[in-house]
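Tokens as discussed.
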């Protein structure tokens, strides 16, 4: 998609790829912490360190999936330069509201997904 659509699409192919790789990297960091706990090289309380990594992972992959950057949405910006589009700011009040609603939706989805991911992990750690 090479055209900015308020509340629908505010990043292009290059920005999506950046967020996807950042998300995958965050998930990998969380897995590394879990492995360290499983190998008893760090205490079980280190699992708390996975929460920001898991949240970052979900934010990254959700932004890629929705073709929408939450930070850009909150700031009413867009960057579609990697897909043949332009870069700029939303000027209309309704476009700004739509972008901010979408940004909030992504952050809330990431928070719910983080809880759904982290809670079973902590329960499992208590059982081990």
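Sequence:
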């Amino acid at each position: 998609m090479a055209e900015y659509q308020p509340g629908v699409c505010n990043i292009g192919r290059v920005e999506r790829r950046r967020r996807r790789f950042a998300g995958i990297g965050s998930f990998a960091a969380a897995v590394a912490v879990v492995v360290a706990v499983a190998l008893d090289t760090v205490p079980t309380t280190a699992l708390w360190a996975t929460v920001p990594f898991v949240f970052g992972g979900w934010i990254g992959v959700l932004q890629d999936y929705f073709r929408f950057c939450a930070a850009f949405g909150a700031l009413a910006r867009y960057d579609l330069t990697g897909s043949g589009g332009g870069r700029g700011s939303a000027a209309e009040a309704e476009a700004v509201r739509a972008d901010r609603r979408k940004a909030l939706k992504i952050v809330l989805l990431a928070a719910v997904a983080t809880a759904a991911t982290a809670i079973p992990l902590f329960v499992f750690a208590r059982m081990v």
